[in-house]
């Protein structure tokens, strides 16, 4: 992993059912010394609860945070931003966003619909796969465009999780480095 400056805090925002020890987000959390929100339930997600947990964790950060979100966590962050203007977020890496509006979306995800489609008030990058079963690449492009974020497409990467062979996903740190190039380092007022 490349050296990551400490000008920011890092926050890992998992998706539905959390990110277990074998998931790249858990690996990254250790590598980055990141925080992780703790909603009441990862298995029965409720939008308000997830947004409140994210807000509380961001408020506990000492510096603006770079949020690394996966799947339903990307949607939770977009809702947070729509409600609170992205307070506390310096930038976000949005990996494999879940399309909660797709036909056949599991019932526990429906509370997160409709998908926020307003521009995010902080720099962001979307990373998606061209064969993600939970979000067609055309939909990922629409979300990236709406959120004002460039899209990186990983060919044949599935849902970019442990099940698709992304247990550590060290290659993803390159996406994080690209994101950070466009982020202003916070400065103290004189």
Automatic annotation (TrEMBL):
Source organism of this protein record: Crenobacter intestini
Protein name listed in UniProt: Alpha/beta hydrolase
InterPro entries on file: AB_hydrolase_fold, RBBP9/YdeN
Keyword terms, alphabetized: Hydrolase
GO molecular function terms attached to this record: hydrolase activity
Record's keyword annotation contains Hydrolase: yes
Domain of life: Bacteria
Claim: Hydrolase is one of the keywords in the record: yes
